[in-house]
Amino acid sequence: MVSRFDQQKTKHQLFHVSLSLATILICMTYMQYRRNWAHLGSFWDSLVVPIVFIGELLKVVLARFYGRIEDGVLTVKQRQKKATYFTPRELLGGLTLQFLCTLLYAFICIILGAPVLGNYEQTFVLALLMTLLTVSPTVFLLGGGGALQVCFCEKPDFVTKCEDTALNLFKYNALGGILGAWAGSVVAPLDWGRDWQAYPIPNVIGALLGSALGNIYACTHVLYATARVYMTKKRS
Amino acid sequence: MNFTYLFVLIWLALLISGGVLLFSRGFLLARVSKTETSTCRRLSTNPNDEYFLTDEVVNEVFKDVNASAHLCLPQKTKVIILVVDALKYEFGLYKENVKEPLPYENKLKVLQELLEQSPDHARLMRFRADPPTTTMQRLKGLTTGSLPTFIDIGSNFASPEINEDNVIDQIVKSDLPLVFLGDSTWTDLYPRRFKRAYAYPSFDIFDLDSVDNQIMKHLPKELASGDWQVLVAHFLGVDHCGHKHGPLHEEMARKLGEMDAVIRSVVEAMDNETTLLVMGDHGMTASGDHGGDTDDETNALLFAYSKQHRFYGNDTGSDSEMLQQIDLVPTLATILGVPIPYSNLGLINFNLIPEIPVPHLNRFQTLLLHVWQNAQQIYRYFFQYALENKRTFNVDEMDRLETEFILLTHRVQTIYNEAAFKSFVRDLNIHLRDILSTCREIWVRFEPTQMLHGLLFSFLPVFFIFLLVNNSRPADYVRIFKAKEVFYTYLINLAAGVFGYRYYKNFSFKTEEHGVIFFTALASIVILAFHTLRHWASIVENWAAVRRFGHMPTRLLLFGSMAVFFSNSFVIQEAKMLSYLLAGSILVLSHELLRLSARVEFRNKLKVSQLLRSTALRLILASVLAICFIRFAYTLFRCREEQGNCTDFATSGGPGFSLKKPGTGKSYILAVFMIVVYTTLTRLYLRSCGNLTGNSANVLLARYGPTVASICAGGHVLLAHSSIKNIQRSHIDAMALVIYGLLLLQIVVVSVAPLMTFVLPPRTGNTVTINGNESIVPEIFRKMKRMYEGDDDVERRNAIPVVYGLATVYSSIVIAFGVFLALVMIVLLEPRASIGLVICVAVGAILLSVHGILRYRTATSFESCVQPTFTALVGWFLLAHFCFFATSHQTTLSQIEWRAAFVGRTTGLGQSNVISGCLVILNTFCGPIFFFCMYSLLSTETFSLFALFPNLIRSCRNNAGKADATTTLSELANEAVGFDMTRGELTLYEYEDVFLGANFKLAAQFFMLQGLKIFCAMLACTIHCRHLMVWKIFAPRFIYEALATFVSLPALIVGYLLLLRIHRAVDTLIKRINKTKVH
Q: Could you read off the pLDDT of B675-709 as tens digits, one per residue?
């Protein structure tokens, strides 16, 4: 039990989680500061998408930072993968994948009830946010092809240990985001007459809160494991 | 065969329905109607009469005005009442300077002319109806002067006689002859009251003219005859035109023009001693319908005209702008000099009373006598009612009202001039309106004990079904419900019912019904509890095996669908909520499928071609398609008034009117296309399963019936709504009748010889070569063989008969039955809505196939394979209720599709109200009825799907490299699910105990879900019973849900019965084949 405790991994996880929470906190502060909810649906006027984007990038940087330590023990495939990280092909592939994902999310939004004609900007913002919360981190970390393989196949062997840690956490983030956006629509039909009940806002906030919840859930898992290790150590 | 389960199901259904009925009696209970009548001594101007009006009498009266209640002043004039059904207030307003008037504008010019010509002799007023605004409720209100009850609304088709005191009876009692022409609702309400009645049924709402023409034919004759004192004519054309075309159609202009001519001719023909009242009983919405309580529906028109006498003016304290409909009764009674009916709550409006001086009386004295009579009548009724129904009214409130009234009784003695009279009348009117509003508040009153018992007795069965049925294994039901015990259960229930009927008074229940339901439910609950306790051990064992927090997403979805009832905004948006939840359940189902079986397909490298070929992708696409269908159904939803920007309820008056949705040509074509696609696809499916081979009765019917039916349905859709005028109604009806006939034929055939199989007689010495895997029929063929031999015994192969369609022997019949049922519903629904039905069927098919594949990939034994997953159960349940909304229905009372009652019956064929009711129910609840009748597909489709796509099972189990080419399919299946599944639905026959038990369990689970839903609806009504929106939102929602329960429980039982019938037929078939094999 004790031997399986990985201090580096736990640190990475905790930093990762606090980074995501911080991103969402910043988003919330920003919204509070703006005091006007309507801007959430517009692309140019709102800073939420850029904030989330930066947050996700930082997480990838964090993963890379912790990945540095295990550089020495990489397999050939992992090295190859790492070498091709910044090639134009990978970059292009990643961008295309994200774009397609945005379109897919927009389509899903529409078949789940978003207006078909009109409100394109709002749908686009929501789709973009969903992409950022779900697909983008994986793409940033592994590139387009890698992301696809992770999604559809069993665990590929080019994933390093530390990337695996990050991917696991991304999963919580993504699941929370999707479920949150889905659950957000519940408030839409209520007759409270608030301005934040307009179309994309409950879903955007739901997605953010959902991913926050996902992260908190992940965090409790990590902390629980840590606490158990700590307790067993103390007892022995 | 095993009918025990059937009787258990009927028992449970009765139990739940009893609870719901009890609750509805307590919740929707309204006024207790009183049978007392008013009487009075009529003061006469004829010196020979007993009560001749003289100065002494007048002095006597004014000595103590309070004692004058039993006196009636003499009749003022004769009265002609022209009721124009659905004559809205706006129809009568004259708008000057309108260049292009809308079809309903400026058509009743006669009103304007009379008003201008002699303003003192004519009155035009808003005539405010109390909801519900259906004709019969309005007629009751217009004649009794009391507030209508809520629940009567559904009984518009069967008018019962009124037993409460009313103005018609008073007129008859005072020997004033009445003549009636028009809508037969009057003669239903008041049989044998009229001297002459020309009554015509209001049955056919497409018929704009025949009733009106008959009235117009007889009216001049009656006007001339003059042997009546009151003449009532009720025109229906305007209302029917609203229902058929909406207020913006040019037909409306024609009908209103006709009414204008009628009023003109009546004005011309009437003598000087007659008062003419033209009134609408209710208004209409922008789409021409009525029933609800919007301003559009409640504001009718009232026009009064008297040739010679002026009406009393504004100085009498009466409202000259607006008349409440209940005020008509005392006003009419005053004009005719008859007693005001006992239970009247309205006030006399003097603006409508011709000013005819009464000898020996001042003007104000006359008025005072009238007013005070009215006040005393209301007081008598109100306090008598309060006395008999204690705790109805708030004590403080009553005290206050009584004190006020006593003050007024003192004050009335001291009125000697006009000024005092005016201020007195003002105060009196305020006081009486106060009483009215108190009554209005209270008379939507509840019966808490009945509500409590209703809640209890619908919850407990659900609870015990959950404990007993949900937590037992299908094979155990044979032990739990033995035939003898079920028989005794019925006997005990009967005894309890008789006991309740006999002794209900001893337990202080108000009605026999309450007593019967209470005691039978109590007895049944005790029996259920006894069963539960007896099998507690096995229940606990099975319960412990259930995973904690299993099916969490599905439970959340279910919770969501139940929570809808508790919030008015969710009820308003329920259509969207349900589609949200349904999409959710489909997503959960496909997610489960993906999680459990799809990721394995690519192990290392992602290949696009492999992805495209994979079943997982196809299933995902199917789910996406289903969600797209659900999204498309958004366009078919009908909106309700509370939703903003609802075109059905555009802003009242003015240009906000909309034409009755003309249902553009496109939607008709689309509807026909959908019908054709639906029948073609089911036919293809059945043929590919080999169920259309041979010539048994059901096969023939399934081969040709749907084609004929779909042609008829298409023709009916196109012709019934087309603008071509000269098609004979009977020809259109014939098409609907053909479809009804086909359904009846199908029912007969199913009950006589349901099987859709074809037994090829065995040929000896002739080897039958089969090319496997080429098409499905040989596949089945091969399977059948293996089944009868048990092993591949080549020598005996030829002796074995070949049976087509045996792998889908159960589901094929259910599907064929469903086609006929769906076609009947399609012809009843309007075209747009029938698209919705077909879409729901498509979603259902996708749900079934996704679930079927999931099931046989994950099942570990026959028992688990035959029971659908909880998610599929909830999905099917949600789909059944979603279909209600997808077929353009909405849970408001004014949006019931009465039109369905006339499909195929306009030529006067079978005018029974029962059939009308059935057709409307079939139309309204087509979703629950259809999907609950088909519920057994959830367990049988798994097997037929396996028979169709057997190779899907391989990919999930052979990852460890077990699969080599030599293992046969049946071995694989054996390995995978623990039994040989390759035989399709015939496996079901072999495990008949488990199969029947599982289907019983499935039906009981649906009972449980439906019971839970109606329980939530009831609970929401109880919690919100003083909510502002309770009558507008929660109560209609409850009524719809209760009706849905009453309909869906029998539908489930029919579904189970169908299955039993098929099972029996399969049994005889197999036995026969075995016999021939032995010989």
A: 999 999 999 988 888 788 778 888 888 888 999 99
> Is some CB atom of chain B closer than 8 A to the CB atom of A213?
no
The partner residue sitting opposite B606, judged by closest CB among A111, A148, A186, is A148
Nearest by CB to A189, from B569, B628, B631: name it. B569
Q: How confident is the model at residue B907 (pLDDT cuts 50, 70, 90)?
A: low
Could you tell me which chain A residue has the CA closest to the CA of B616? A152
Percent of chain B's residues with pLDDT above 90: 26
Q: What is the pLDDT of residues B552-581, one digit of tens each?
A: 889 999 999 998 899 888 888 899 889 999
Question: Could you tell me the domains of chain B?
Answer: 76-96+115-148+164-354 (3.40.720.10), 629-959+967-1078 (no CATH)
Min distance A107 CA to chain B CA atoms (Å): 10
With a threshold of 0.80, does the pTM exceed it?
no
pLDDT at B770: 42
Determine whether the interchain pair A152/B611 forms a contact, defined as Cβ–Cβ distance below 8 Å: yes
d(CA A189, nearest CA chain B) in Å: 6
- Tell me the percentage of chain A whose pLDDT exceeds 90: 27
Enumerate residues 138 to 177 of chain A having a beta carbon within 8 A of any beta carbon in chain B: 148-149, 152-154, 156
pLDDT of residue B952: 64
**For residue B142, which amino acid is it?**
L
- Bridge partners of B354, per DSSP, are B311
Question: Domain-by-domain residue ranges, chain A?
Answer: 7-235
**What is the per-residue pLDDT for B450?**
86
Give residues 464 to 493 of B whose Cβ lies within 8 Å of A: none
Q: Phi, psi at residue A152, to the nearest 5°?
A: -105, -20
B contacts of A152 (beta carbons < 8 Å): 599, 602, 606, 611
Q: What is the ipTM of this complex?
A: 0.89
